[in-house]
Amino acid sequence: MASTGMQIFGFVLALLGIMGAMVATLLPNWKVSADVGSNIITAISQMQGLWMDCTWYSTGMFSCTLKYSVLSLPAYLQTARTTMVLCCVMAAMGLCLASLGLKCTRWGGGRRSKRHAAIASGGCFVAAGFLCLVPASWFTNEVITNFLDSSVPESNKFEPGGAVYVAFVSAGFLFVGGSIFCMSCSGKRHGPQDMILLPPPDKLLLQQQQQQQQLLQQELQHQYCSLSPLDNKTGYSLQDYV
User: Fold this and answer.
1) Which of 72, 112, 126, 165 is most buried by its number of CB atoms within 10 A?
2) What is the CB neighbour count within 10 angstroms for residue 189?
């Protein structure tokens, strides 16, 4: 099995992954206006995210508009919203299971239970990484396709923003963290898997000695009770005669 240090390293990577996924979901700069053509002269920076569109003017003013209508959004944007939310939920479940599957923790049951928790948490992290990678890739493909389209005006051309890169990095962290937790249960089984805590060797030896003494006393008591009353009486009479 993987060492405790590797499990802690995977847990930290998964924690960074879920934090990055949450930040990427809320950031408004999934795509930013490209500095081509007349955009350089107007000095207006436009940003579009999953939940709002923001505009930064050269005068220093900054305004954002929320996207209230869901049906009016394009398909890739609706998919990005859904998958990023599911990614955060799946990664949060993975963190809860990973805290039970860590070797350095006392909760979570025996070895077998911890192995199962580690497998489940690794699966949640890998699934969350996949859910984070899909919207980032699809969004990037749409932005690049729109940018290379010659029929689109230069004022409406955008390029991938910082939130997309954060999503890619977060997906990588989740993939690596999930792989570490999945590999932490691929080793061979040694000994009983349901044993939670073993007593110290001295205490175990003392318990064995006590059990042997109890068994010896029970055998002696059984032999004494098996003697017939006639044998006891005969022995008493001979003793009186002597």
Assistant:
1) 126
2) 11
Distances (CA, A) of 26 to 11, 106, 119: 23, 36, 30
What one-letter code names the amino acid at 19? M
What is residue 131's predicted lDDT score, i.e. its pLDDT?
Answer: 95
What type of residue sits at position 172? G
The answer to whether 66 touches 51, Cβ cutoff 8 Å, is yes
Instruction: Please report, for residues 71, 79, 133, 139, 242, the alpha-carbon distance to residue 129 in angstroms, rounded to integers and kept in the order given.
Output: 26, 15, 6, 16, 96
Contact 54, 62 (CB under 8 A): yes
**Percent of the chain scoring above 90 in pLDDT:** 35
Whole-number Cα distances in Å, 80 to 43, 102, 136, 155: 29, 32, 7, 24
Please report the pLDDT score of residue 2 as a whole number: 45
Q: Determine the Cα angle at 175 with ends 17 and 97, to 5°.
A: 70
CA geometry: angle at 119 spanning 115 and 124, to 5°? 145
45 φψ region: left (φ > 0), alpha (ψ -120 to 50), beta (else): beta
Q: What angle do CA 154, 157, 159 make, to 5 degrees?
A: 140
User: Model pTM?
Assistant: 0.70
Give the separation between CA 104 and CA 116, rounded to whole angstroms.
16
